[in-house]
Amino acid sequence: MDNSVHQVYEDEIQLLEEEIKLLAEKCEDIHQESTFFSDEEIQMAKKLFQRELQGEYKGHGSPSDLKSQLESLEGDLSFLMKLTGIQFTRHSKKTLEKCKHFYACCTEILSGNCQSLPFQLEFQLLEMQNKENASAAVTDLSIIMESGQHSELSKFVSSTEEHRNLLLFFRSLSSYAEWYEHRRCTFLHFK
Questions:
Q1: Whole-structure pTM value
Q2: Other beta carbons less than 10 A from residue 36's beta carbon
């Protein structure tokens, strides 16, 4: 029994020695690979990488430029909300699959109000991009609106979902909500 335990330890020691030998060889190989590059070449590679990294950020501008762009975009958004009466209250986007030339599919959810009409849109967007241009197509559209007071909208909503035309939806909803408010105010005046 004593010999068998001794043999097990000897085998374990031999396996560990072989593993140490393999690791020492790998370490030596890595050391030799690192000596292939001189300090000058390593410094040049670092500088090149830093230039590329800075080039990526130059397109975005400095923080003050970004702040002014953000303020400008917020002003534009405020103007559009006043003009159309559409106010977005929630937006979420989930990219399902990315590829080098296009984003295969993104699921987006938009919620908001147009005048006093609440709405929620859920759609899938297929974004394609090549060297010259970018395009996007709505592949699936679901519109949720309260149909209690506005039963006349159900046919319009169904047609819009079928044609997957977001621009038509927002234009028509804006126009309908504006005239709905005019009718509501007129009826209140005569009451």
A1: 0.56
A2: 7
Q: Is 153 helix (H, G, I), strand (E, B) or coil?
A: helix
Q: Is residue 20 part of a domain?
A: yes
Instruction: Find, among 92, 95, 124, 127, the residue nearest to 111 by Cα.
Output: 92
What is the pLDDT tens value at each position of the chain, 191 positions in all? Answer: 577 778 888 888 888 898 888 888 877 776 665 555 556 666 676 676 666 656 555 555 667 777 888 888 888 888 888 888 888 888 888 877 766 555 557 788 889 988 888 899 998 888 777 667 777 788 888 998 876 666 778 888 888 889 988 888 888 888 888 888 888 889 888 87
135 lies in some domain: no
- Asked, for residue 98, whether it belongs to a domain, the answer is no
From the number of C-beta atoms within 10 Å of its C-beta (0-12, 13-18, 19+), residue 157 rates as: buried
Q: What is the domain range of residue 6?
A: 1-31
Domains of the chain: total: 1
Q: Is the Cβ–Cβ distance between 147 and 153 less than 8 Å?
A: yes
Look at residue 16 and tell me if it is in a domain: yes
Q: Give the chain's end-to-end CA distance (angstroms, integer).
A: 107
Q: Locate tokens 């405020």: which residue?
A: 78
